[in-house]
Predict the 3D structure of the following.
Amino acid sequence: MSESRQVLAKVLGFSLGLIFLFTLVTWLSPQMEGEAPQEQIIKLDTLTQEEFVTLGESLFNGRGACALCHQPPPVGRAPDLRKLNMVTVTAERLADANYQGEATDAASYLRESMLEPGRYVAPGWGMMGSEGVIISPMPAVDKPPMSLTPVEVDAVIAYLLVKDGNPVTVPLPGGEAR
Amino acid sequence: MSISLWVKPLVLPLLLLLLGMTGLAWGVDGAAPQPLRGDYPDIGISSRAVVWVLAQLHLFFGALILAVPLFVLVIEFLGIITGDQRYDDMAREFLKISLVGFTLTAIFGIILTIALFGLYPQLMSYLARVFDGQWLVYLGVFLLENIFLYAYYYSWDRLREGRQKWGHLGLGVMLNLSGVAIMVLANAWVTFMMAPSGITTDGTVVGDIWDVMHGPLWHPMNLHRFIANIAYGGAVVGAYAAFKFLSSRDLAARAHYDWMGYTSNFIAILAFLPLPFAGYWLMAEIYAYSQQMGITAMGGILAWLFIIQAVLIGTILLAGNFYLWSGMSRSEGAVRYQWLIKYIALVLVAGFLVWVTPHTLILTAAERAALGGSHHPVLGPLGIMPAKNIAVNLMLIATFLSFQLYRRADKVVAVPWAAAGNALMTAIYLVAIANIIFVGVYYGYFTNTVYKVGSSVIQVVSTLVVIVSGIIIDSLMFKNAKKLPSHWGQVSNRSQYALFALPVAYTWLMGLMGYVRSSVKTHWHIYGVMKDNSPDNYIPTIGYAGNMITLVTVLFLLGLLFMFWIADRRVKA
C-alpha cells in the first residue's frame, strides 16, 4: 500500500470513528418524538364537565403550549400555574395598583391573560420592551400558531380552576352555565 | 478554453429558471394553501428523508464553495500585503480544488429543487408566488458568480504582477459578493418559513418583496452563516493540508503543508470565536419572535440536542487548542508559556463537563426515589443555561488565550512598556472571568427571567472585550518584536489529526443545527400560516436525526474525497 493510501485509510478510520462517537451520543440520549397535534372531533352538546376539564388539561399540556413556559423554576419562564391556586392569585392581581385590565373574577382574569397577555404582566415575569417598558412575552392564544377557539380557551380556564378544587364558572359548550 | 467551460455555468441556471417558472405557474393568488394528508405525493419512502439528505448535501457543498473563495480572497490579500509568495500559491491551489465543488453544489441544488417541487408542490408553488421575481434575481446572481469564478481562476497568471494584482483581487471580491448575495437570498426563504413577514395570518401577501425577505431572523441568520462559512472553509482547507502533510516525506513539502495547515486553522479558530455570539443573537431573535419556538428549541423536546451540541463544540475547541499547543513546539520561544497549558486544559475540560450536564435525568422509579427527584441535587443546577453560559464563555476565553500564547511564542517583545502591557492584559482576563462568573451566578440563579436573559449579553461583552483588547494590545506590543525561528514541518503527526477532527465536527454540527432549525417549526411548513399535514409532520427522535446526520456527513466526506481526487488529477495533468 502506498504512503498516501495508508494515510487515507488512517484518516478515514479516524473520521468515521469520530462520526460514530457523535452518533452514539444521539443513541444514548432520550428518544422522544414531537407529535403534531391530532385533529379531535368533540361533540360539544353532550360534553360533560369532566370531559371539558380533561380537554382543557390536554390543551394546556399540548396544542395550547402553555406548559412550555408555565413550569417550575428555574426552567420555567412564566408563573408555574399548576402550583398556583388561580382564585387566590386572581384576588391578589386584581388588587394590585398596576392592574389595568377589566377582569372581575378568576375566569375573566384568566381569559383576559390568554387573549390579551399585555394587559397585566405578573411581577418579575415580563421582558424588557422598547424604552424600558416591561412587556409580556406571552403570545395571544387565539392567534397562530396556537389558534385556540373560544370553547378551547374556556376549557383551559375550567382546568385551571378545577385543579385546585375551585368551582367551574365558565359555561359548558352545550350552553349549561355553571 | 473549452466549450464545456461556458456551457456549465449557463445550463445550470437555465434549468433552475425553468423549474422556477414552473413553480410560478402553479401559484394562485390569495391565502396560503392548506394541503391535506392525501395531497402529498407518496413515493414509498419518507419524502422528508429524501429532501433532508439532498438539502443538507447542497448546503454542505454550498457552504464550502462560499467559504473557500472567501478564504482564498483573504489569503491572496495577505500575500499582496506581506509579499510572501506562499500565500498566493496556497490561494490558487485552493481555488482550483473548489472548482469541482461548484459543480457538485449546482447538481445537488437542481436535484433538490426537483425533489421539493415534486414532493411538496403546494408549499413550493406558494413560496414561488410569495417570492415572485426573486427567483430570477437568484438565478442572475448565480450566473454572475460562475462568470466571476472562472474569470478569477483563469486570470490568476495573467493578472499576477503590479497593479494588475489588485484588479485580480477585485475579481475575487466580486466573486465573493455574488456568493454572499446567493446565501443571503436563500436565507430569506428559510427564515420566511420560520418567521414569516410581509403576509397576513392566512398567508396573503400584503408587503413587497423586501417586507417578505426582511423577517426578524434574516439578519441574524445571515451573520451566523457568514461567520460559520469562514470557519468552515478554514477547517476543510486545514484537513486537506494535514492529509498532504502526513502523506509527504519531502521536508520542503511537509514544511509547506504544515504552514498551510497552521494558516487555515488560524483563520478557522479566529472566525469560530465570535460564532457563538452570532448564535446568541439568532436565538434571542427566535425567542423575541415566538417564545414557544424558542422554548421548543432550548427547553422542550429538542433540549437534549444541545447536550450533543456541547459534545461537538467541545470536540472543536479541544482539537483546536490541542493543535495550537502542539504547534508551539515549532518555536523554542514557546517554553516560556508552556506552564499555562495545563490550566487552559483544566478550564476547557471543566467547561465541557458543565456544558454536557443535562438538567433532567431519565431515571427508573427506583433511581428517582433514591435521588429524591429527577434533578440531581448538586449537578442539577449545572444543567440550566446560566451554568452553560459561564462554561461557554470561559472556554472561549481559554481558547483565545491558547491562540494568543501561540502567536507570542515565536516573538520577543521589544517595547519598553511590555510589563505594563502584560499587566493590563492579565487584569482584563481576570476582570472578565470574574464578571462572567458573578453575572452568571447572581442573575442566573437569584433573579427572575427579565435579568437572566440580559445577563448573557454582559457575559458576551466580557468575552469580546478580552478578544478585541488582546488583539489590539498584542499588535501594538509585538509590532517590532524580534522574531524567533519557526521550524515548519517539525510538528508531530498526531497534531494533524486535530485538523481532521475540526471539519468532521463542523460538518456534523451543521447537520445537527439544520435539524434544530427545521424542527422548531414543529408541524408547520410556514410557521403559524401553512400547516404541514404530510406523514412526516412530527419532530423525529434525536437517534433518527443522528443517523440521518451521519449519513449525509459520510456522503459529504466521500464527495470531498472525490473533489480532492479530481483536483489532484488536474495538478498531475
